[in-house]
Amino acid sequence: MAMPKSEIQEFWHVLTSFDWETWTDWVFDWGISRGAFLGLIYVALLAVLSIQIPNFWLFALTWIAGTAPVWLPVAMIITAYRVWIWYARSHYLASKVDPVLLEMKIPREITKSPRAMETALTAFWMGSHETTFIHRFVKGQVRPFYSFEIASFGGELHFYVWVFKAYQKSVESNLYSQYPDIELVEVEDYSQKFVFDEDKYTCYCTDWRLEGSGIDPRDPRINAYPFKTYIDLELDKDPKEELKVDPLATVLEFMASIKPTEQMWIQIIFTAAYRTGVINRRDTAWKHLVETEVQKIRLESAVLPEKLPEDISERRLAQARPRATWKQTEQVQTMERNLAKHPFDVGVRGIIIAPTEDFDRTFWSLRWIWRPFANPQYMTQLRPRRWHNPFDYPWQDFHDIRWNLVTRRFLDAYRRRAFFYTPWETPYNIMTSEMLATIFHPPSRTIATPGITRIPATKAEPPANLPR
Description:
Layout: H1 7-17, H2 20-29, H3 34-52, H4 56-95, E1 99-107, H5 115-121, H6 133-138, E2 145-153, E3 156-164, H7 168-178, E4 183-186, H8 190-193, E5 201-211, H9 248-256, E6 263-272, H10 286-300, E7 302-303, H11 313-319, E8 321-322, H12 326-339, E9 343-355, H13 362-367, E10 381-385, H14 401-416, E11 429-432, H15 433-439, E12 454-455
Parallel strand pairs: 1-12
Antiparallel strand pairs: 1-3, 1-4, 2-3, 2-6, 5-9, 5-10, 6-9, 7-8, 9-11
Helix pairs in contact: 5-7, 5-15, 10-12
């Protein structure tokens, strides 16, 4: 294991790496746009070339015009393809999809573990609407996506399910099958009611991405490592209510503790992690990623016999004696357990809204609201990213111009429930039904958060022997 580096050592490593990506990431950490940094370097290089090469600009324009028959048709085809996909999907989502927002009313008595929610989620995994090339390319159809939402209005908590109208009955029946005492009521979209006025309100917006295990969050391998789930907390064993430790209680308690003038919204958008691509289709690589990481951990834990060639990994693994540490055992068991579950593409975002005079450091707790589920050293955690998170230095914004612009863009994405498709295609992660059920499920009676309004009575069927 390498020792942590000091800031000076880290700077020297960045400087001597001669890697563009490392340089741009380091510049971005200082609040300087990657595009601006690369643009300045590009302009500087052009300036040097124009000095060193006589008639540089004439030469460059002549070369571009001369090679246009080669690169221009390719560029036009690629551009036309992307513009058409953008248009076709936008048209489909705007005119063919009729969304419904259902409020989930929570009963007084819920004793089921999150395993019931995981069972219900299996019915959400479907790859319909994308069967043929005509559906995907000509009509712009996309597979159905859903949204689980928790909203706090001055400390009063509400639970929502956003779904395509065509799948409303299917979603309701699956949720009722596991939670017969809940009520799903169609309501008006609360996010559409709020009108953002930068003179009256200040907002803090964030996404959450999987990070941890020493893996770059942009590396797809991060999706092989889950965070702490309800099975890790032994909630699948249905202990007595007074013995349950549900991390969701921490999330709900914080959301219920905001000021009466504030609002806090959390949105979990998900769709089946299925085949990708419009023309060239292929299966998701998630299963392969998990199997590769498990193989890597097994190899690291192996005690190798002597005189074995180091470069033959298959033989090394076959002849090795496993001596896994507790960490490696937990990693392999957890990853292989999740491999048996349905995978979903998932995007998680949140916002806190407050009158400008009441806006304080509450947003800091929102950023780390998912920390009770974190396992950053062995596995992963949901870490705040994007939107307002990069605003650390005063030179990044002038008179809150960019801050308010980001807020308006975030609200537009939130209201559209857009994460995977146009106009807001945002980086997302892959989570299993087990992980999804952990961060969203009807709270049991062990979660005594006062902000949860519960149905006072449970539903029951009338006796079968009543006279008709």
